[in-house]
Amino acid sequence: MDVHGADQVALVAADAFRVGAAAQLTVYADLLGVSLFVADSPGQLAQLLPKLAAKKLLLIDTAGFAPSDPRIHDAHALDALGVRRLAVISANQQGAAIEQAMVRFGQGAAACILTKLDETPQPGAALDSLIRHRLPLAYVSSGQRVPEDFHLANAAYLVDRALKGGQLATPYTLEAEDWPLFAGVEAEREERQASARGFNAG
Question: What's the pTM?
């Protein structure tokens, strides 16, 4: 708002699936002092966007679906309308879930917003997925407060968080007395592989 001015910013409620989505966005619009428009279907959104083309910043709240939901194609349809889509992905998921979300939502997105960093002791999986998919990270959120917990992405901070996360004590951390057993298992595996190679060569 500070950059463009409230009169040059508008919100569009385009989530027709979540109960109370438009009402919730109305609260944010009132707090920010910006205009709010509602589009209950992709067709209505397509008709609304040209009317708001003069706005310098237009933020569209779309429905959130699971990566496997076929309705995510509705969000991808925004690309054809010239909308710069941001993929909003929760960082507190398992690595496989983050990867699935990145594949389905990140394709064609201009950038990503990582949420729930406050619930993520080890954000390395999310950062790894972003790097591999070459998707820029625009913002992160670390709580429920708006806008206090919404921040520009800071690479140094995120790397520090990821490295410190590896130092956290978990039930899966190898203790000093576990290493001999681990080494023995590895040695036995290598011995079996060497035997198999010798058998195949003979």
Answer: 0.71
